[in-house]
Amino acid sequence: MNNYQADKCTHCPIRSKIYCSCLDKDNLKDLSISARHETFEKKVVILSYGKSIKSIYNILNGIIKVYQLNEEGEQQIIGFLYPGDFFGSHEGGNYQFFAETISQVKLCKIPIDKFKMHLEKNPSIKDRFYEATINELSLAREHINILTKNSAEEKVLDFIKMISSRQDKMGQPINPVHLIMPRNDIANYLGLRLETVSRAFTKLKAKELISLNSFESIILN
Q: What pLDDT does residue 131 have?
């Protein structure tokens, strides 16, 4: 094992936020043998609905959107994943959604069979791994909570707060809120028309609930 392979997990920028943080030095180096860091450009589908689970992933850098297809073959976005988020596991043995990059993304990828071996060897990470899998379920809960809001302004404001909370989870300032995803993806996620989302941003600014440096950089007042 070369030094890079041994060190990539030891010096991982998100290690403190994911399940392997509880591993000691030797077990972490053992895990690093199975882990691969891969970089993907924007608009690359990482995994597809119905495909057999081959690997699990943690996001090191960048943002991914998670979606399903409706009966017309149109995307229905169910969540956005940020650095530190885990995805790719499911008890049924098949991926239950599509995952596509919104920006350039760097992932930590581990073959599922190799990872199961590490789980058996290191019982201490089972609880942390369970917490990580719960994150996948929380996407649906977050989505439902926002969709139940009465007005477009409430939905948009809750969405901005959600992204602010994600930034805080990553150790970044809660303001400004950086909306890297396209506005049409936000509209899709919120179940609104694109022009309705644009009007909602304008109304929130008029009410001084937000300040717009630009669409990608928003201040929550």
A: 66
